[in-house]
């Protein structure tokens, strides 16, 4: 390591908050104004530590009998040698020393679409959300046409979306310095679009191929789409943490699914979203063949076995119920 | 929906008395005004019947507070008292929680012991510690009644005191599966189980219920069923230990009779658009229709509801032994295919069998499938649940929706309550096979 040197103050996640150039060794560090590097940390001594060249020729830091010491990898030490990657802590402040000859990485390839910021994605998002709402309303409109229903639906969905995006934009401003609300709106719109398409495909394929399981558990797919949205929102705030955000998305999705199952079981007594599939479409879309009605009814015997087994079990909470009956009289 | 409500009010015959009994015994003053002033023959009957007339109370074993009250009468010079099953139902079903006592017109009290129940006709026989004076008899040869003749009901209305009321006999009602007599006179809650007399002091029947939507339309259990039950008690070597089992067996008997009667009546059909649907319309199964055809709606819904109007009262929480059918025909020329799909879907959605926390039944189990009966392709769902207290009894719900037209939907539902598994399956089969398409539109 050759002079000049740079003392770098880091934050907890290892990013540089600021750096100061020092031309020669030794570098005295502390809160006092007679130091080479003044450390604004109430847990640091006026004369806390000194960085100097040791007898062996390498650069090291030495504790000047400070109250809280020099901490390296969690333990206090009197003296430690430093290279450009050693992070040491004085008081509450993580620090690093680098010299002018420290090798730096190549620039990252820029994958961000800088023209896809601001108004273009925002307007596209709003348009997609509006079209989705109008289409959804139209598909389920079984009354005489009244424009006000379409207007109220659009206003409702749009304001919910804006609330969601606004929260993400605020987080973006907080952690990355700018809002990127256009991007967040676009992500929201894409999420809504994907979830609508998935739910429609689920319904149609359940109807066409007798795959009832698709409609009985489709809320879990919606949950997966929501966590996908969360992943992209987080990535918009900070593109550096792809992996940990992906993990966050998976965890959100799994936890959401567990909560859905628990709520269903608590309120309905079964895990599925509905007791049976109620979707009806045009008969032309039926692909799988119908079962003979008598075969279908014969299967009821299996249900009998299930309810007979349940009847044989004692009822939990029967006592509490009897209490209720008495009070009812 | 309105039809359903109609069905409920009309079919409240058996249950009326008890529900009223529990709810209104405090609001006595208003009801008292209904009682007509007794005629001289009423005075005569009352003075003779008085010693053998009883009030029966069901008490909570813990604390001895009264839970429900009814009336009863001592037969001949025996210790046997006739009353309604629904007065004694708590003792029959939950003997560990409830007990009974009688109070006679002199205020004397004593314990009652349940000897026999007839759930289907709503009768019970209990034994007490004092004999009758011999006024009430139920001989082999019962009096013949003619429409319009005076009858007198005795009992303890609304726990206010013993009373007699006068009315007219108006024939046999066979809307239920078991005959009842129509009595056009006031019967109030608390008089359940009391005797109904002819002017010359013969037992005509037992007070059982009244119509809440009518004026003075009351019902009696015919005396011949009392006679039959007393015969059974006479031949009974020992008192049955578990009346729950007995009740279960009688419910099984009822559903067998109900199914037998249904199968003997020729299956009737109703026409809804191009479809033909089964209805079983008969004396016992009544049908109503309704339509929403309005200018403001771009679609029409025609409905047919058929149901057995009587139910068997088992307890305050349970009435069973009935069959109900609902056919709904949705049609639209104005709506697009997508919109009609969502209309039909919404109408088919969220049908179930009630909450899963109900301790009377097991949780309902369902199967769904696209099926065809050879005449019509349908989407079908069948649900089944079992009665926890009564083995061999089940509730069935079968729901179908036609899948042959894109702007027409026939949605049907069959409910069979308190039937054996085989009978439930049989009626479901007849129902699903009975749905067909008659013509092209």
What does this structure look like?
- The complex is a heterodimer of chains A (329) and B (441).
- Chain A has 329 residues and is an alpha+beta fold.
- In chain A, 49% of the residues lie in helices and 15% in strands.
- Chain A has helices at 119-139, 147-176, 181-209, 213-216, 218-237, 242-268, 293-298, 300-312, 318-328; strands at 5-10, 16-22, 27-30, 37-38, 49-53, 59-63, 70-72, 75-76, 79-81, 87-90, 93-99, 291-292.
- In chain A, α1 runs antiparallel to α2 (147-176) and α3 packs antiparallel against α5 (218-237).
- The longest helix of chain A is centred in the middle third of the chain and has 30 residues, at 147-176.
- The model of chain A is unreliable at 318-329 (pLDDT under 50).
- With 441 residues, chain B is of the alpha+beta class.
- Chain B has three domains: 3-34; 42-241, Thrombin, subunit H (Beta Barrel), CATH 2.40.10; 248-437, Protein Transport Mog1p, Chain A.
- Chain B has nine helices and 25 strands.
- Chain B has helices spanning 2-10, 16-24, 28-32, 40-49, 85-93, 223-235, 243-264, 337-348, 421-434, and strands at 53-60, 66-74, 80-83, 98-104, 109-111, 113-118, 123-127, 150-155, 163-173, 180-184, 195-198, 203-210, 217-222, 269-272, 275-278, 285-291, 300-308, 312-315, 318-320, 322-331, 365-372, 377-386, 394-402, 408-419, 436-437.
- Chain B has a seven-stranded antiparallel sheet, sandwiched between helices.
- Chain B is elongated.
- Chains A and B meet through β12, α7, α8 and α9 of A and α8, β21, β22, β23 and α9 of B.
- β12 (291-292) of chain A pairs parallel with β21 (365-372) of chain B, so a sheet runs across the interface.
